[in-house]
Amino acid sequence: MPAIRLPASPAGVKFAANLVDSVSRQVRVDEQWALYHYEIHALSCLACHDAYRVYKSRGQLCPEGHALAITVADLFYTRPSSDGHLKMYAHDRENYREVHIEIPSGYEQVLSLLRAVESALRRDDAFLRPKSFDSSYHVPSRQPGVHPRRDAAVRPPSPPHRTRVVAPEGARRKDKRGSLWEQDIEQLRRDEAMEKKLRYNLEVRSPSALSARRFNP
């Protein structure tokens, strides 16, 4: 990796007066900070260093670098000039026109990023999708929104189980003996009825028998 040269902070950036004309302007303070934060990050992050190289190798920026790159790409874009050099432009959200921005010295990582974004948009590659990527002025994103699909929850099938029906005790006896059991029950009922009848007759006749013995010795 070549020697790292830190860019000047936004507070110390100066522009020559003759560089600013009717179609050019200086970088605003908020824009300068966006450039600065990405530049500092890309200088120390192996995944984001030289974004154009990352793009050509079909790599991806790290999550933090990608978020910072989105902010930069939403503010600026580049276009090759007649001499082959890339020129930096800002999205004019009010007048919908190109505004040329002079690139501050030392922002090599920003230039590499914007070059990668310009190449990706020209080839319709999915490297970086800024919120606005029109080549002439700021417009809402024309890419269809991607929403995570929510699949219906599928419950796993319940494990097979056996249902055991417990029969009453009497029913089990009936299953074992069949019609004989019914005959036994019926006979038992008849025997009980006869026993009760005999017991009742004995109880009723017992006093009369005693009386007969008492009065007829």
Structure description:
The chain is an alpha+beta fold and 217 residues long. The protein has two domains: 10-123, no CATH class; 169-215. It contains six helices and four strands. Strand 3 (86-91) and strand 4 (98-101) form a beta hairpin. The radius of gyration is 49 Å and the shape is rod-shaped. The termini are far apart. Mean pLDDT is 69; it is low at 13-22, 132-148, 163-168 and 202-208.
SSE arrangement:
Elements: E1 24-25, H1 29-44, H2 51-56, H3 63-75, E2 76-80, E3 86-91, E4 98-101, H4 108-123, H5 169-177, H6 179-215
Parallel strand pairs: 1-4
Antiparallel strand pairs: 2-3, 3-4
Beta-strand content bin: 5-15%
Rg estimate, integer Å:
49 Å
Strand order of the largest sheet: 1-4-3-2
Instruction: Note the gap between the termini.
Output: 144 Å
Uncertain spans, ≥5 residues at pLDDT below 50? 13-22, 132-148, 163-168, 202-208
- Overall pLDDT score: 69
Q: What percent of the residues sit in helical stretches (DSSP H or I)?
A: 40-55%
Number of helices: 6
Number of strands: 4
Class from secondary-structure proportions: alpha+beta
In short:
Residues 134-178 are annotated as: Disordered. The protein is α+β, with helices and mostly antiparallel strands.
List descriptors.
217 residues, single chain, 6 helices, 2 domains, alpha+beta
